[in-house]
Amino acid sequence: MIVELGHFSLIIALGLSILLAVYPMWGAKVNSETLMATAKPLAFGMFLFTALSYAILTYAFVVNDFSLTYVASNSNSQLPVYYRVTAVWGGHEGSFLLWLLMSSIWTVAVAMFSRAIPKEMVSRVLSILGLISIGFYLYVLIASNPFERLLPFYPVDGRDLNPLLQDFGMIIHPPLLYMGYVGFSVAYAFAVAALISGQLDSTWARWSRPWTIAAWSFLTIGIALGSWWAYNELGWGGWWFWDPVENASFMPWLAGTALMHSLAVTEKRKLFKAWTVLLAITAFSLSLLGTFLVRSGVIVSVHSFASDPQRGLFILGLLVLVVGGSLLLFALRAPQLRSAGRYELVSREVMLVGNNILLSAATLVVLLGTLLPLIHKELGLGSISIGQPFFNQMFTYLIVPFVFLMGVGPLSRWKKQEPTALKNQLIAAFSLSILAAVLIGYAFDQLIYLAVLGVTLSVWILIFTVQEVRQRIGYTNNLAKLSELTRSHWGMVLGHVGFALVLMGITLTSNYSVQKDVRMSVNERVELAGYDFEFLGVHEANGPNYSASVGRLNVYRNGKLKSEISTEKRFYPVQRNVMTEAGIDAGLTRDLYVAIGEQFANGDWALRVYVKPFVRWIWAGAFLMAIGGMLSIADKRYRMAKRAKEASQPFGGKQIVGMSH
Amino acid sequence: MKKVAIFGLPLAFFLLAAVFLMRGLYSNPAERDSTLIGQPLPPFQLVDVMDEAIQYRNDALTGEVNLINVWGTWCQTCAVELPFLTQLKDQGVNVVGLYHELDSDPAFGVKSVDVIRTEITEMLKTLGNPYRFNMLDEGRRYSLDLGVTGAPETFLIDKSGKVRLHHIGDLNQRVWQSKFARLYSELESE
Questions:
Q1: How many domains does chain A have?
Q2: Searching chain B, which residue's CA lies closest to the CA of residue A326?
Q3: Taking 50 as the threshold, does the pLDDT of residue A646 lie above it?
């Protein structure tokens, strides 16, 4: 009965989303305060009923209601309660319900935090968010309903959650990723609302900036967690595989990064207006495309299995309406846009254009690499596959000019930068970064060309970021001046430093990781990169819903015990799955990583041992980038705008625009 | 007008991509054209996986319509399709297994035949046994002849021993209905 209530509240939420799509938009058109005032309560209602529906599905999981098809296929009575709660998004139907929940959260957030923005604009934005939601509510209710019953014959127990998903990283990875995906719908809604109203001055850019940065931050953490999960759970020591599903999350991230920077230019300098609108549409479109690719089975991936073309068709239909509709609007309205500002060839504007071109090129590379095999085959040219080498090579080419601009850009002036003024900085930074790279290469006893390149780029960013901060405080040693920098400025600094750390981590771990596949008997030792791994043997252990063989190792360096590692081979009886749980000793400069394999007839065990230098920096850097994003949102000027409005000064906050990046 | 054309480019690009995505929905991403279609099965001489004294040659697969299913106990998707294959067997379809040994990594050692046999018996007992018999493809040489890229894969063999269909990926109700069922009944009535 309670489950039917969940189903019913979802239908109510659909009804509310339809009203939300119609009334505020209409109100904005006929300038009716009453109609526009419906936006907020409707958004709240949509959120409440979606949340109720979601809570009820979670409840069904917690109490093991296997009369629900979805619960029966994704849970089991032996599954620990915390995994039952996360199993809600362990399958197709539930992850779309999660999507809806996220989307209604964003909608409510926009309704709540937009007091500074004119009513007409907010009404249109909320209506557009409602319009997008209609499609997804219909999809969940018609094509992928998690509340379907298996009556009258329902199983005694469920088929269990995929063991791969029973991991801490998986608990928080999908919600964060979805927060990011769906979050771009806000920037999209702002852009489309601006196109509809015809008010394409740069104010919409200011309003949508914090939302874009928020979505981007969520997406950054989401992607980082996904990578961290793959590293922990898949047992082959990799952290990025260019799998179509990873690409699906990477494309909106790249477009979103471009959008953040382009919004800054549009807001500050009233330039690139059409381009920024297009990017806002693109970022969300790529989120939708990613969802389609992952969920429809058009592309071979470990993530998509036994999918249903009917569902794919539905999502494709949504995609065509949302993306096609907005691009049509763009084609009709964008020609009216004029960008007024003037700038010289060497200026921050042009460097940001470079940033945008390179990020768009990167997006295109990933998009083509993901879609080309499909297009190639549909043209009847046979099957091809595009894998790591292609992406790695393309990104190596793209990153060099990108990093060059990333260093110089923030330091340069708007409108016109005197190139000669930069000359000394460039020479000093270049020599210093090369020197650092060669030194690090020597520390690893081996100079690898790509490693030198990567470290040079990373140090280049760090040096220029420090220089930029020094320039801001007037090259004084008075550190008190640092507090004068705005939060959004610190946000940029952290974002760029984070990126440098990611780059450093990727470079060093890709070039200097070592691994060994060994067969070991008890008390045997093996040496790898200066570490001695001593195998202590294997004992059996039992988890809540699995049994495990736990292998233990001691790791010594120069005869001293450095760490104790245990790695597990788990057997999940319900799905008859064997999973390797890697044993990892995490460190700032290196990870020791051990995965246990099969046992041999004579009692020896197969083990795979890795020493992976600086791999943590990849995720640490990503977190730093996300923190940078959060810091930017917390900047005073976004709040000042609100206060100014409360003091009934329309468009308050304008006076501080232009203070910083 | 000219400007609209420029700003319409993203729309055109997107619509083109959508057409391909649409077509992609209705084709199997794992499908490749096999050169074997219409050709007789390459000659083979393989032992039974449970008993090396029993040998099979091409004549073991003529006179009746057969499915050759490439599988292994290590393969998760094979475990998923076993119940459906068993259902097919119960409807009178001949299913023959080609046991696909997992890559024998020298560092990890080769599994002994006894271990493989116990694993097979275990798995077929719990998930259903669709197979008339299982041939062991030692060293995976025959899989190479057949152009097998992984497991599971299924071949439809007509009464004269010719390959008529090669399916990559799991065989389920949907695949059977859309790809196999009609051809199968045609071949049956030949």
A1: 2
A2: B11
A3: no
Is the Cβ–Cβ distance between A233 and A581 less than 8 Å?
Answer: yes
Beta-ladder partners of A595: A608
Give me A96's structure tokens: 């779309």
From A274, A327, A383, residue closest to B11, measured CB to CB: A327
CATH code: domain of residue A567 = 2.60.98
Respond yes or no on whether ipTM tops 0.90. Answer: no
Query: A408 in a domain, yes or no?
Result: no
User: HSE of A427 in the Cβ direction (CA atoms, 13 Å)?
Assistant: 5
- Cα angle vertex B66, ends B60, B67, to 5°? 120
The verdict on A386 and A522 lying in the same domain is no
Residue of A nearest to B114 (CA): A601
Tell me, rounded to whole angstroms, the distance of Cα A413 from its chain centroid: 31
Contact status of A617 with chain B (Cβ, < 8 Å):
no
Partners of residue B3 in chain A, C-beta under 8 Å? 335
Q: Are residues A386 and A530 in the same domain?
A: no
Domains of chain B with CATH codes = 36-188 (3.40.30.10)
Cα A439 to chain centroid distance, Å, stands at 34
Q: What is the pTM of this model?
A: 0.81
In-domain check, residue A651:
no
Q: Name the region of A266 (left: φ>0; alpha: ψ -120 to 50; beta: rest).
A: alpha
A371, A390, A409: which is the final residue of a domain? A390
Which chain B residues are within 8 Å of A296, Cβ to Cβ?
21, 25
Mean pLDDT on A323-330: 94
Number of C-beta neighbours around residue A521 at 10 A: 12
Estimate the crossing angle of helix A449-472 against helix A388-408, to 10 degrees.
30
Domain assignment of residue A550, given as a range = 514-614
Say whether A377 and B15 touch across the interface (CB within 8 A).
no
- Which residue positions in chain B have pLDDT lower than 70? 1-2, 27-34, 102-111
Angle of helix A119-142 relative to helix A39-62, nearest 10 degrees, comes to: 30
